[in-house]
Amino acid sequence: MLTFNNLLVREFNRLISTRVTALSDDLTAGRLETIEQYKAITGRIAGLREAVELIEEANSICEGKTESRNDQNSNKVRF
Q1: What is the pLDDT of residue 2?
Q2: How many helices (H) and strands (E) are present in the chain, helices listed first?
Q3: Maximum pairwise Cα distance, the chain
Q4: Whole-prediction pTM value?
Q5: H/E element holding 24?
Q6: What is the pLDDT of residues 38-72, one digit of tens each?
């Protein structure tokens, strides 16, 4: 049985994957006219991929599988 967290993670991953595919299609189809557009699209793709990693990390934390990065770094000096 899937929990709410698992369903949410699955749906986020599906939506993000769909968006990354659409953005990648724009890159490969040559629809971009400037280097600025190219940089913006590649930046969005990178951000979405990082979002997937953070969502999966958050899900693992909620399920008690791992510690958060903040807990792991609690001994470090913060400014």
Answers
A1: 76
A2: 3, 0
A3: 48
A4: 0.74
A5: helix 4-28
A6: 999 999 999 999 999 999 898 888 888 777 666 66
73 phi and psi, to 5 degrees?
-100, 15
10 Å CB burial of residue 13 (0-12, 13-18, 19+) is middle
The encoded tokens of residue 13 equal 């991953």
| CA–centroid distance for 64 within its chain | 20
- Tokens at residue 65, please? 């599988």
Alpha carbon distance 34, 54 (integer Å): 31
Using N-to-C axis directions, what is the helix angle for 35-62 and 4-28, rounded to 10°?
170
Judge contact between 21 and 74, C-beta under 8 A.
Answer: no
Q: Which amino acid is at 21?
A: T
Q: Work out the angle at residue 69's Cα, subtended by the Cα atoms of residues 47 and 3, and round it to the nearest 5 degrees.
A: 75
